[in-house]
């Protein structure tokens, strides 16, 4: 097992560090994706269906498909899909995202959707059930993932979704931008020591909030999920604008808030939420651009990203420190992050 871990103490950490390579490998899918897209009929809308981390990748897909293609896009949890069955548009492309291709809820939804509309499965495991049953298939080439908490497969799913959107709207510029992601991600991974130190400061908190808007909202949800899964700390991901409708009542100096604040459309309003939670005593971990003096002065701790990353691409990079934060808190709390209690890598029951 030590040899399989390639010198890392856990599979999860190895898989986090494999992410630049996972993106690079998944980018090779572009020619297959172009072929698939050329066979598409005209779609009037897109519906994503998934569970867990794959659901968060789907949410990024919503912002992308609506923003780039202007296509109305829904995201439905696979376990809730049967309740929307009657409303499935026959002119929709129904996209199933699944690392394993075997999740029971996702397969059940796929079987319902197959009777109604064209289906596309974005899957990591070759030959899995979803790949045999969907009309179209795209592979995320992340390689095998052993850690129960998904990391590199999430990044590969996102990469596929960006490729798909770029191919559907023939956005060559976006395809080029994506080529830069692996190197940017390496730069983000080099912040690990800082994040490990941060983990030490926050590891005893009992509750965390993760906030973001637009493209950063799924990142907040995924950061909170990673924390819950492997540290057993309560982490709640929230659309920053919803804080005032309830959760603000829970904020005090015992509740750290992780704020995902890349430069762009969402920046100023999320920053004002940072000020609101600070006024109630919260310590804020800010994720933002290296040249954001206002955020860095408000935040107790700051993770700095290269300033040239466009907001649209930020989900691919901003999630990485949150994976590392959860990982290091987990280890510092004496938990084995590869084998969280009560959870399975693949859930084959409904
Ligand atoms: C389980 C795993 C998660 C995963 C989810 C969906 O809960 O622990 O990491 O996101 O299933 O799995 P899938 O294989 O369909 O992506």
UniProtKB/TrEMBL annotation:
Location comes to:
Cytoplasm
Please give the chief subcellular localization of this protein. cytoplasm
> Which intervals hold domain SIS?
36-174, 198-340
Q: Which UniProt keywords apply?
A: Aminotransferase, Cytoplasm, Glutamine amidotransferase, Repeat, Transferase
| Single Gene Ontology BP annotation | fructose 6-phosphate metabolic process
Function, as annotated: Catalyzes the first step in hexosamine metabolism, converting fructose-6P into glucosamine-6P using glutamine as a nitrogen source.
Write the span of the intact protein that is present: 244 to 593 of 593
Instruction: State the taxonomy lineage.
Output: Archaea, Methanobacteriati, Methanobacteriota, Methanomada group, Methanobacteria
User: What is the protein's given name?
Assistant: Glutamine--fructose-6-phosphate aminotransferase [isomerizing]
**Residues the record marks as active site:** 345 (for fru-6p isomerization activity)
**Which EC numbers does the record give?**
2.6.1.16
Q: Which reaction does it catalyse?
A: D-fructose 6-phosphate + L-glutamine = D-glucosamine 6-phosphate + L-glutamate
GO-annotated cellular components: cytoplasm
Q: How does it assemble?
A: Homodimer.
Q: Which residues cross the membrane?
A: none
Q: Which GO terms describe its molecular function?
A: carbohydrate derivative binding; glutamine-fructose-6-phosphate transaminase (isomerizing) activity
């Amino acid at each position: 097992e030590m040899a399989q871990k390639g010198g890392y103490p856990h599979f999860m950490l190895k898989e986090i560090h494999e992410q630049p390579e996972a993106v690079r490998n998944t980018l090779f899918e572009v020619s297959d994706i172009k072929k698939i897209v050329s066979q598409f009929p005209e779609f009037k809308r897109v519906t994503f269906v998934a569970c867990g981390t794959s659901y968060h990748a789907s949410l990024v897909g919503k912002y992308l498909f609506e923003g780039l293609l202007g296509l109305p896009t829904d995201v439905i949890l696979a376990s809730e899909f049967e309740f929307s069955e009657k409303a499935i548009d026959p002119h929709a492309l129904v996209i199933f995202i699944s690392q394993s291709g075997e999740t029971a809820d996702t397969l059940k939804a796929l079987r319902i959707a197959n009777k109604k509309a064209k289906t596309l499965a974005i899957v990591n495991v070759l030959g899995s059930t979803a790949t045999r049953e969907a009309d179209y298939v795209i592979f995320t080439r992340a390689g095998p993932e052993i850690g129960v908490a998904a990391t590199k497969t999430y990044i590969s799913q996102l990469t596929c979704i960006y490729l798909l959107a770029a191919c559907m709207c023939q956005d060559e510029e976006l395809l080029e931008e994506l080529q830069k992601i692996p190197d940017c991600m390496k730069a983000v991974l080099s912040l690990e020591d800082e994040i490990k130190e941060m983990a030490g400061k926050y590891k005893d908190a009992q509750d965390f909030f993760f906030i973001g808007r637009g493209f950063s909202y799924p990142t907040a949800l995924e950061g909170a999920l990673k924390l819950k899964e492997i540290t057993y700390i309560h982490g709640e991901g929230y659309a920053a604008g919803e804080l005032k409708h309830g959760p603000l009542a829970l904020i005090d100096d015992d509740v750290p808030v992780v704020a995902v604040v890349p430069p762009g459309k969402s920046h100023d309003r999320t920053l004002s939420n940072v000020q609101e939670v600070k006024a109630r005593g919260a310590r804020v971990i800010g994720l933002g651009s290296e040249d954001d003096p206002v955020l860095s002065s408000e935040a107790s701790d700051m993770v700095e990203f290269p300033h040239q990353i466009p907001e649209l691409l930020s989900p691919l990079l901003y999630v990485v420190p949150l994976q590392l934060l959860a990982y290091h808190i987990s280890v510092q709390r004496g938990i084995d992050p590869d084998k969280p209690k009560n959870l399975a890598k693949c859930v084959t029951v409904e």
